[in-house]
Batch of 4 targets.
Target 1
Amino acid sequence: MHKKKQLTLSTAVIAATALLVSGCSSGSVVSRLTPSFTPKLGFSPSWTGTSASPRVWRGGRKIRKGGGHYKLGSPYTVAGKRYYPREDKYYNRVGVASWYGDDFHGRLTANGEIYDMNALTAAHPTLPLPSLVKVTNLKNNRSLVVRVNDRGPYVHDRLIDLSRKTADLLGLRHAGLAKVRVQYVGRAPLSGDDSYERRYAQGKRSSTSWFGF
């Protein structure tokens, strides 16, 4: 989802996010006010603030892990907002997360990897690619460590876009949006090795009843 384009925010989008922040983030509210979202498919490109990149995977085999390059990038502007990519070892922010799925599945990410909606990944506007972050759903206190390998989101100051698998495990897939805390962990290996993320997930599964992986 790395190609960026300007878009105009609709009143419906602003209202949906306002309802979320005020604690009224039910799936029915998000679906009703943002028709570009469904619990099955996630948000469409028109609502992520990006256009979809070329699809390079068309099924028949497992999507490869890694294969991209380290990327930070120069400052850039989307929809009138300036973004300053940098590595912030103390990054610890609270904001709104959403998730993206089928429309981006199998397409190139901003650092040349392939987006896999069934992997533990995410998109962030400024953190290094690839890197690892801890994401905590503040409504239910579920947390995961995920690989940031894409740029976005660019709509109404949303903090992070999550893969469908991540949204599932954090309990926000049906609602579409959730208030989360994002904490920087460090650089991720270019190889795509996700053993750290999986160990964290396995630890959560062994200590809680909600986790399925």
Note: Confidence is low (pLDDT under 50) at residues 3-35, 209-213.
Target 2
Amino acid sequence: MIVVNDGTNSNASPCPNSYVSLQEMRTFWENRNDSIFTASPRVSTAVLDAALLYAVDYLSQKYRMRWIGSKVEPRQCMEWPREWAAIRDYVDFPDGSLLPLGVSSKNKNLVYYTTTEIPEALKRAQIFLARAAIADDGLSASQLVGVLDRSTKREKLGELEVEYFNAQREKFFFDASREVEILLTSQRGTWERG
């Protein structure tokens, strides 16, 4: 069962276990005409529950020691909300360099997330990762692994050709991880599409 973290219930019982609700996820993908969400029959609540939980597990495991700021309460159930987490916006230039907007060189003008705020970038990342966890037929969800663990669908030796299962899944990982890396962690990862 999904218990949404609204930023004020970090130590509630039962502990929150998701940054977004089932309805938020459904609406997000229905608005983008994702066939898994617009086709009949609809993805079951059980599959969505599992996918959202797998996405939170992935985010927690991958970024646990890299989030900006610190937990508001040391024993809170989830990584967010956080205190002293600066809001960062960047212009991403074609050469890969980033320029922060609205922050002076001496960091005098930093703006912080409130101690009850769950960043929209984190919510979007959970939604993208949860979608990656859902099988193409919408009937099941599986734990998330890195994009380097792709399954090979077809190989061809002459003129070397490789086809992977579910290339769309890699895109979901990339979209979610890039935003989290840039906006919500203390160090920027290096991203290149292979």
Note: DSSP finds five helices and six strands in the chain.
Target 3
Amino acid sequence: MNATATVSQNWPVIQQGLIQFYYATKERTIEIIKSPITNPDMLWLLIPLIASLILLEFYFGRYSEEELGWNTAFGNSLALIFISVILAKHMYDYQLIYDVNKISIVASVLLIGIILALLDFYHALPKQFAFKLSAKLPIDYLAFVAIVFVFTNIPANGVTLAAFLAILIMLVIIIGIIHRLAPKFRNWVLPEPPEPTKESDLINKPQSPI
């Protein structure tokens, strides 16, 4: 019996499993999104992350010709380290230091932050690749995942992984919309940014008579 025949024979079971996985992923996604409501302490970390992410995306939507910069990439990596330390303190305060899963997540995020900080500090990677790794979205999203796992009891399984992937896709779509709206918003509300003035232009500019 070939693979096609096997799939055709078992398709009703596969279809039922996919439907169940879809609804489980949908429920888990809603649970993750609503987790700050049931765990208000999360908001002290999530609100600065979300606000800074949205504002910076508006900024780069307005000034699309600008790039991240090594200093900003390094700062983003340090932010990931600081968030890991805050999460470790939360685990210590609430006696969660014996939870192997939570400890592993915080330690992994801390290690990633340290590695990224060292790579950015020494300019060890090609600029375009390093800036993508240390951009605001991947850093904040990784911090968001760690915050959710530390503050909640959501299990780390395939359904949760699919839910986080769905949230990431939604974030990418929202950021894409922000990038498209930022220039229009600029034209509606804000004036065009002035062209940089060269020092030579100021020197050669004729002075008006008094």
Note: Residues 3-38 form the longest helix (36 residues).
Target 4
Amino acid sequence: MDVDSLYQEIILDHYKHPHGAGLREPFEAEVHHVNPTCGDEITLRVHLDGEMVSDVSYAAEGCSISRASTSVLNDLIVGKSVSEGMAVLDEFNQLMHGKGKIDPNEDVLEDGIAFAGVAQFPGRIKCALLGWMAWKDAVSQALVTTASSDTASSDTALSDTSSSNEGTS
């Protein structure tokens, strides 16, 4: 079996048996992204536990490339820190914009290397990146949400402390 056939098999396997598919709770952010050139759509949720990505769940409609790519994203991102996930995103993004001339880092991208051939087809790059851009957007929103709730919790704790100290003077 040649490498291209193997890559096609990996993509088809992730398409037919998607990892992480189905919207789940809890989550800190939910986004909906659409690829207007082909009609692919994804609703993606991110659940963070501090800086760790605890879950990425999604509902996707579209081509095998966009759906398989999001399945691979789930495998590569869940269980990593947000910064590690962003590093994986950068590697995948470089692969997609390398026009098929970049040797993918298999240690980082694992099954994501199967999308190396997709980079040769400009019309398909957006398909492969749809879930990844949705993940980046959702993580950004989740970080803002968790930072805001941490600040609100701190403010509440401070006001509770201030209220309880008012009668002690």
Note: The radius of gyration is 20 Å.
